[in-house]
Design a protein that fits this description.
Structural class: alpha+beta
Strand order of the largest sheet: 1-2-3-7-4
Largest sheet: 5 strands, mixed
Number of strands: 11
Distance between the termini: 85 Å
Shape: globular
């Protein structure tokens, strides 16, 4: 008898769990119907950690062993990055740019509708950031990226003023200097550029890290190979500043997944070294804070363009000069935490932007030539040493360089999805497809970067080559999947399509709210694009997000990317390396038709690798690399 009871107990527990799951499923489906938002029923909550880490296995098994009719209705919607992999096709299938996926767990709302995105980003209290997802980013403590509510307001208010025009001047100067050093590495000893650079991303990561290290923390980093030289060690340190920072960022996934004790005691050497780098860089930064405090107290001049110097100066302000007690300056530990998250987010975002821009320009020769022509007309051969931030940056931002940057960010945004939620808040009204709908409480929200290729919000033309589409399934009848910087010079009188129905229903006065937020948090209300370029409708271009939680370092990133592109393409051209298909001698002996054929193979491989990009922190190429060559203008091998 007891053995029978022991057998029945687990069966009873399994039955109870199954019944509970079924009831939750039914209840969620009813809520989805009541919401008024188009929905799809899926077997799993797509943002569950187990699913996020194992979904490729289960999707492969489902595709191989389940009948198509069993999976066709939900298969695409349980792919966490379907807005990148499939773009707008899943939305098109349901006939709506905003959809709910419904499971036995939480709801998930996906939207590629600019109007809906604009509503959500403006209503920061109704649709907060799901900060629990960012707990792993608290490597050195709470910061502006991982807090919400009053704590976030304080961090944001104290960190936003750091990104000043004076600091941007420093970003500009350091970018010009560091990019020339990077080109020296790419061009080789003879500076002819007849060598293949296999891993461009490694160098753009290094460039970005060097710029933010100088502009943010006053540390000038040089381009010789990163080594843990004894001569570079600070007193009492076992790693140099540069080596510790590089090693920590290169292995940051370990710091995200494991706590410090596990890293410290791990039998795996790379994990122990990650812990060592974490300790070493943290100590360097603490010493930097102490040093800057001492310099200020001694009356020594500080470069106030330096971000960490400004934070330390804020600590030492007399009480009557601080805005209020609740906005008291950041503590030493908070300075360290915010410094690290700014480096983490900033350097990877700009590095990926430059990497993808170089690839896309190498694959689209006519656009590269238009960029070079525009740079030549502006600089007129003026040496880089005579370039001026105030005079030259506006021209770059409003010209072909700015168009290239915008188009790269449109096609390959840093984040596939920008997360919001209704955790901890009640059901929220939302205008979807012109109707008043309801977002249920406990809904995870993805603002999808596929809004960038949504033909409802972007001007478009016919595809360049309908037989060879730029994307295998999305936008087959238009050119929105194609890299076409010239599209940003289209009709400047294009009207903003954003509707006003939300205001009419008294949900929110967006303009008044946005103005209040901008004043409170010193948020720039300027467009992400120049006045001379096409300005997408509000919510249609979210490369830097929107609203109060938009990117702190937007202008920092733009200055760096524009400066680097200008340095490179004012003097050089970038080409796809074809070493896998032909030797240099074979290419030299080819006629134009043969060169086009071998170049097309390189383009096809580059497209495959770009489409295989995926996210850890940001969207990045992870399945290989596209080798490039940099040559002086006029010495190109592929010029057609």
């Amino acid at each position: 008898m007891p053995s029978a009871l022991l057998l029945l107990l687990p069966l009873g527990l399994i039955s109870a769990v199954a019944v509970n799951c079924y009831l939750c499923f039914r209840r969620n489906i009813e809520k989805a119907k009541e919401s008024g938002i188009p929905y799809v029923v899926v077997p799993v909550f797509v943002l569950h950690r187990f699913w996020l880490t194992t979904h490729p296995l289960w999707l492969k098994l489902a595709r191989n062993f389940l009948p198509e009719e069993w999976i066709e209705s939900w298969y695409d919607y349980v792919r966490p990055e379907f807005p990148w992999e499939l773009r707008n096709e899943p939305f098109k299938k349901l006939g709506s740019d905003t959809i709910l996926s419904v499971s036995g767990g939480d709801f998930c709302l996906w939207t590629a509708d600019a109007d809906v995105i604009s509503q959500i980003t403006t209503r920061r209290n109704d649709f907060p950031k799901p900060t629990h997802l960012y707990a792993s980013v608290d490597v050195y403590g709470k910061n502006v990226a991982t807090t919400e509510g009053a704590a976030w307001r304080r961090h944001r208010k104290l960190t936003t003023p750091l990104f000043t025009e004076r600091n941007n001047h420093l970003v500009w100067a350091e970018t010009l200097d560091q990019t020339q050093a990077m080109l020296d590495v790419w061009l080789g000893k003879n500076r002819q550029g007849n060598q293949t650079v296999d891993r461009i991303m490694d160098d753009t990561m290094r460039l970005s890290l060097h710029v933010i290290s100088r502009a943010g923390f006053g540390r000038k980093l040089e381009w010789p190979q990163i080594q843990n030289e004894e001569a570079e060690l600070g007193e009492g340190h076992s790693m140099s500043y540069t080596y510790a920072l590089h090693f920590l960022l290169d292995h940051i996934i370990f710091a995200f997944l494991f706590n410090h004790t596990i890293l410290k005691l791990s039998p795996v050497k790379v994990m122990r070294r990650t812990y060592q780098a974490y300790i070493e860089w943290g100590n360097y930064m603490r010493e930097m804070v102490v040093s800057k405090k001492a310099a200020i107290k001694a009356g020594q001049g500080l470069d106030d363009m330096d971000i960490i110097g400004q934070l330390v100066q804020g600590q030492l302000l007399p009480p009557d000069e601080k805005s209020s007690s609740k906005d008291a300056s950041l503590s030493d530990s908070e300075i360290l935490a915010n410094s690290f998250v700014l480096i983490l987010a900033g350097h990877e975002t700009v590095a990926n932007t430059l990497h993808y821009a170089l690839l896309l320009l190498a694959m689209n020769i006519s656009s590269q030539r238009n960029l070079q022509k525009d740079l030549q007309e502006h600089f007129q051969g003026r040496p880089i040493s005579e370039w001026d931030y105030d005079r030259d940056l506006p021209a770059l931002l409003g010209g072909m360089t700015g168009a290239v940057l915008n188009e790269q960010l449109r096609l390959i945004a840093p984040a596939v999805n920008i997360p919001k939620c209704t955790y901890g808040v009640p059901d929220q009204p939302l205008i979807v497809n012109g109707k008043k709908c309801t977002v249920p409480t406990n809904t995870f929200i993805n603002l999808c970067s596929s809004v960038h290729t949504n033909p409802s919000w972007w001007p478009h033309g016919p595809p360049k080559d309908p037989k060879n589409p730029a994307h295998p399934v999305s936008n087959l009848d238009n050119d929105l999947e194609e890299f076409k910087p010239e599209r940003w010079f289209l009709d400047p009188d294009h009207k903003d399509k954003t509707t006003t129905t939300a205001k009419e229903l008294n949900i929110l006065d967006d303009k008044a709210k946005a103005a209040d937020d901008a004043e409170e948090f010193s948020i720039s209300t300027t467009s992400d694009t120049s006045r001379s370029l096409y300005r997408p409708p509000k919510g249609a271009f979210i490369a830097f997000s929107e609203g109060p939680r938009s990117c702190l370092g937007r202008r920092f990133a733009q200055v760096e990317a524009l400066g680097a592109l200008a340095v490179i393409f004012s003097q050089y051209s970038v080409e796809l390396a074809v070493d896998n298909w032909a030797t240099d001698q074979e290419v030299d002996e080819m006629d134009e038709q043969a060169r086009r054929a071998v170049w097309a193979k390189a383009v096809s491989e580059a497209q495959r690798l770009i489409r295989g990009s995926s996210s850890i922190i940001t969207l990045q190429m992870r399945q290989g690399s596209v080798p490039l060559r940099f040559v002086r203008k006029g010495s190109e091998r592929f010029n057609f």
